[in-house]
Amino acid sequence: MKTIISLLLFLASLSQAGSQTITGNPEVSLSSDCYIPWARVDNCLVGTEGYCTCNLNQPSGRVLWVRSDGSLANQQYTDSSSKLIVTSSSKINNETFTCVWESALGKQNAQTFNVLYPKGPTTTSLRALGVRETFDLCPAKSNSITVVCEVPKDAVYPKPWFHFTVNGSRPVYDWYSGDLVNGVYRYNQTIKVERGGDLSVYCWPGNSCTRSLSSIEKTLKITVREPPSNYPEITIDGKTYTGIDSSAVNVQEGTRLTVSCKVSGGMPAVKEVTLTCGAQQKKSSSGGLATLSFNASRKSLTRPLCSCRASHVTGCYDKQTFVRLNVAV
């Protein structure tokens, strides 16, 4: 009924226009009040309603807003203008409205107003390239992890923006636009890993119209394993040695020695410590400490050297400590 009334009003205006003097070509223009509330992208409908007013430069006739299929849009008429009222839609992604004026002579001028109806993102995924649940931070390997956040094209309109944080800290990776690859919006972020421990990466995809965070954030949890940074510590009679010690420990034949070795640090701690003095060897059953007690003698110390090494779950802890023993008769 409203469409019929609008058409009748339009036809009536045309009959009036035929009896009026038209000075030059009639022109229509869009007012400066054409806007969509809170939009970050031009003409993106963020709220439930937006509007745009079309004005005529002379008093004859009437201007009307029509859709691309020729039907009348929802609008409010005045003498020489028409206010388009746009409401949100979940059925289409965008729509173009045209403001037209036709004279009795059939002349026509038009201005268009394009509106975007944002949706989503409604789903997302987050993964790390080449990494599952653990990442080994070894000196000879790269200390970077590349994470990929994705949103299917049909789950968002217009394109999404991606927002990253690491371990809940203030984001160092702010809003980024992804690339469309095989029907999926994708953004890769490389994270530099500096220490062992738990790493939590968060990705929030948002709509580029508003850049507001969606409720479908994804969290990726990775355990970063790191070997100890220090050498094993060998302790003999209260004195500690690390690395390759050039000095020798002088002991008397038959002296009772207690030699221990520990390896500190690492994430997690080392699995096993192996301490060897001559022909004697001791492995720690658990933890990072191994201890040997023996009587010093040239016979038992055919190789007058104590050494200590450890194994770590990463397989990349190769530091060792060596101490020479000088047994005097």
Automatic annotation (TrEMBL):
InterPro entries (UniProt xref): Ig-like_dom
Signal peptide positions on this chain: 1-19
Span of domain Ig-like: 26-99
Superkingdom of source: Eukaryota
Keywords of the record: Signal
Protein name (record): Ig-like domain-containing protein
Gene this protein is translated from: 106054347
